[in-house]
Amino acid sequence: MHVDRRKFLGMAAAAAAAARSGWAQPAADVRLEIAPLKLEIAPGKVIHTVAYNGSVPGPLIRWPEGKPIAIDVVNKTDAPELVHWHGQWIPSLQDGAMEEGSPMIAPGGQLRYEFTPQPAGFRWYHTHGYAGHDLKKSLYSGQFGCFYVEPKQEPGDFDREVFLTLHDWNASMGGGADASMDAVYEYGTIGDRMLGHGEPVRVKQGERVLFRVLNASATLTHWLALAGHEMTVVAMDGNAVPAPRKVAAVRLAPAERVDVVVAMDHPGVWVLGETREDYRKAGTGIVVEYAGQTGEARWQDPPEATWDYGIFASGLSQQNHADTVVPLVFKSKFRGHGEFDYWMINGKSFPKTDVIPLVAGKRYRLAMKNMSTDDHPIHLHRHSFEVTSIDGKAMSGLHKDVLVVKANGTAEVDFVASNPGDTLFHCHQQTHMDFGFMMLFRYR
Ligand SMILES: [Cu+2]
Asked: How many angstroms from the chain centroid is the CA of residue 337?
């Protein structure tokens, strides 16, 4: 279903008229309050951050596909804010990205977002503010939450559903292997606690548990495994994959989601955590405890893990033809020791990147070439795309809204211009998006 722009504007005008005349608006379906929070992630370890409704993650929003929702957001911080509804096909002004024209919410102010959640699946919401050198702001903070858009019919081949969010805390600038700088962190959490300091996920033998996992880190890619178990990947970025596969570990770049099903067939107390020991020690993990089992949570290294999106895709047979190919070349500009690099798309940094005009209804192919030594989890707003090739290998049927384009690699994704309005494209790595790695598509 396409969004009717006139209808949307009409609703906004009616709301404005109501406000002027002093009528009370009907209560919103959801209310989010953005406010400072002291978050204790382990005894004595307190993070000073900003979050939604005093919790990390913010409240799970679960809402039927196609049913309009009204969400009031109140900003109780001293900086302008906004909320982006990641992965949803909604109008630019409701999308929560200032680059697309969505309004900011002034300190002390309030804004009602109104849209019709779609498509069904695991989406999320988060601030889309600028952090720059302030590594406490935007996605370095606790401003994120899960948004599950319920399909009309839930396949539901599982007994228990668990949402997990990964986040990294207390960022500072640090040196990478080369001379370039990036964010480094003191702690990691799944949910609001470090490994060993929160409530375990409690399961029973014989259950099939569906984990919906979001990497809400501002900059880090995480690898995750459940000791003693394999996981079947059934969806990526909330969309069912054509070829569900069993894997020993999953890789999640910033903003990516996976839905994995685990057959609980190995009783014990286990660690579901980062595959790398230093990250587990920093806190990235959670305990999974079978009923009736006690003792110290156990970890086992999974076999050497690799990540290949292609194994979850279909072959070539259903591949569509794109009307227009848009070449995008990613490069960095080293700015000296102790400073973040600048990022360029086709030789230009945002806001000087070209605005690319689209024609509604056409199918576009983004042909991306990463000429840098960093991976880039690229994200397209307000649309989903189909991955059509990675490093020259063609594929079809894999629908996502974030895709890692590997260092010195290539990738192609197709999308149909089916949701008119300004559409932001950017790297979801905060130090990249804040330093030039953004551009806009525009169509009416
Ligand atoms: Cu990037």
From this structure: 30
185, 135 Cβ separation under 8 angstroms: no
Interval between CA 228 and ligand 1 midpoint (Å): 33
The CATH-assigned architecture of domain 324-442 is: Sandwich (2.60)
| Whole-structure pTM value | 0.93
Pick the CATH number of 160-307 from 3.40.50.2300, 2.60.40.420, 3.30.390.30, 2.30.30.40: 2.60.40.420
What's the CA-to-centroid distance between 236 and ligand 1, angstroms? 20
C-alpha of residue 396 to centroid of ligand 1, in Å? 24
Fold of 5-150: Immunoglobulin-like (2.60.40)
Q: Where do the domains of the chain lie?
A: 5-150, 160-307, 324-442
- Cα separation, 299 vs 285, whole angstroms: 10
Q: How far is the CA of 427 from the centre of ligand 1 (A)?
A: 4
**Contact predicate 358/364, CB 8 Å:** yes
| Range list of β-strands (E), 1-54 | 30-42, 45-52
Written as six digits, the tokens of 225 are 């495994």
Tens-digit pLDDT string for the chain (444 aa): 343 444 444 444 444 544 455 556 789 999 999 999 999 999 999 999 999 999 999 999 999 999 999 999 999 999 999 999 999 999 999 999 999 999 999 999 999 999 999 999 999 999 999 999 999 999 999 999 999 999 988 767 899 999 999 999 999 988 765 556 889 999 999 999 999 999 999 999 999 999 999 999 999 999 999 999 999 999 999 999 999 999 999 999 999 999 999 999 999 999 999 999 999 999 999 999 999 999 999 999 999 878 999 999 997 766 678 999 999 999 998 777 778 889 999 999 999 999 999 999 999 999 999 999 999 999 999 999 999 999 999 999 999 999 999 999 999 999 999 999 999 999 999 999 999 999 999 999
Distance between Cα 368 and ligand 1 center (Å): 12
